[in-house]
Amino acid sequence: MNIDIKEPGGALSGNPKVLEVGAKLQQLRRERSWTLHEASRATGISVSTLSKIEREALSPTVTTLSRIATGFGIEAATLLTDDSGGATGRRSITRSDDGKLSPTGTCDNVWLCSDLAQKKMAPIRTRVRARDISEYSEWARYNAEVFVTVLSGTLVVHSDIYAPVVLNEGDSMYYDANAGHVWTSEGEQDAVVLWVHTQ
User: Fold this and answer.
1) InterPro entries per the record (predicted)?
2) What is the pTM for the complete model shown?
3) HEC string of the chain?
């Protein structure tokens, strides 16, 4: 996979479409005749946060997407598809300038092959902008196993149960995401990583 690394702090290569889950979230609530309060109870996410996501005023983190999916009893990929149909096949291609962009304050996540529903894993290309763990409002924690490989830069993985580990370009790591964890970049260049988590 070729990643066009621009200046430090630049965007991921290409021009991926911004992930918009607000309409999908509203659709899922209406199908269940749920209020925002009922959706909040099911997902453990505040009414305010759900409302902001529906209005596209807030881009959800991977952790938030996982919690929404679990609360609604669906796969995270369902929140990313443009239609309500089932699986579109067992092959999906994401070109270097495509994908579903989900920027947060700490990372720019591009969901890859998001048109394929009912996947057993979710591949994501991420530019890690955070330099300190204090930049995260919450640590990621969800029921999945994660594989990550560093495409460029230096990544530091912080965990509730392990000492921080430094991964350089070409290094990989596999871990249980049930433990709280966050990522930071080390040095001037943002780390760009490819990670895959089970659904």
Assistant:
1) Cro/C1-type_HTH, Cupin_2, Lambda_DNA-bd_dom_sf, RmlC-like_jellyroll, RmlC_Cupin_sf, TransReg_Diox_bact_type
2) 0.63
3) CCCCCCCCCCCCCCCCEECCCHHHHHHHHHHHCCCHHHHHHHHCCCHHHHHHHHCCCCCCCHHHHHHHHHHHCCCHHHHCCCCCCCCCCCCCCCCCCCCEEEECCCEEEEECCCCCCCCCEEEEEEEECCCCHHHCCCCECCCCEEEEEEEECEEEEEECCCCCEEEECCCEEEEECCCCEEEEECCCCCEEEEEEEEC
